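Title: Prediction job returns without error message
Component: structure pipeline
Severity: low
Priority: P3
Assignee: unassigned

Description:
Job completed but the reporter wants confirmation the result is attached to the right record. Sequence as submitted:
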Amino acid sequence: NAILCDLPEIEFVMKKMDRLNVKAFFGARPSINIGEALKITFNTEIKGSGDSTPDTPPEIGVLFVGCGMLETITPTTGPAVYTPQDLMDGPSITIYFYQHDIKHVLTGCRGTWSVEGTAGVYGKIKWEFTGFYAGPADAVAPTDSTFNATLPPALKSGLFTLGAYAGTIGSFKMAFGNEIVKRPDVNAVTGFLAQFIKDRKVTAEIDPEAPALSTFSPVTLLTAGTEQTMSITFGESAGNKMKLDCPKVVLDGVKYAERENILTYSLPLLVCPSLGADDVTITFN
């Protein structure tokens, strides 16, 4: 899978073990560095496959799978749908990336994602994966990779709703919030069997304008613990739309803010499952 992204950032996840044995002289003691994993972070554009009858998954679909989501595609007509899975050992992915002419390989990757969109601007997804590092190797970056040429749509006509309120918002954020941890194993080469998804906490944030309280009263919703649905769509054209649906959203705080001298709210949201693993459903169509 050739995936168009910005420049990846990598972080070596290592355990530094200091040797504190007593010596008869001053000076530093070399520590033992145990390489456990590699973490890679990168951004991709929010866009569909461009297929007008969207039974073709987006190029980033495999990344959702690596974040513990189930891919379901309706043949011929689409859509491609991604829903959470409560699986500790769900599918992992292998990531290859090149820095100049050095190839890096990460195996057994599992990760998490976060979405960010601003009105009138195309949205992005930030991905963070952790996997075993298979080491670098000299290799020329392939020149025959075919990237999806579909242009990312601007966030407009987004059909945003929170319950019955179609708020005037300037930005939208959501984080899938997977907690990635390692499974120790004395028989494994690295001392660890795999990275796995321990839990998740889906959160979101919106910044609606502050209308009359009779129209929208966040403090009332917060104090009452009111559960609401939430939905937003990136894109307008068939084959290039991504819709997020949440069945149970509650406010997690209320703050005042301003946007161009207009009074707004800053509202953190907690996105909860309703009937099981259904915190958020992502639909490409």
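Comment from assignee: result matches the submitted record. The longest strand covers residues 102-118.
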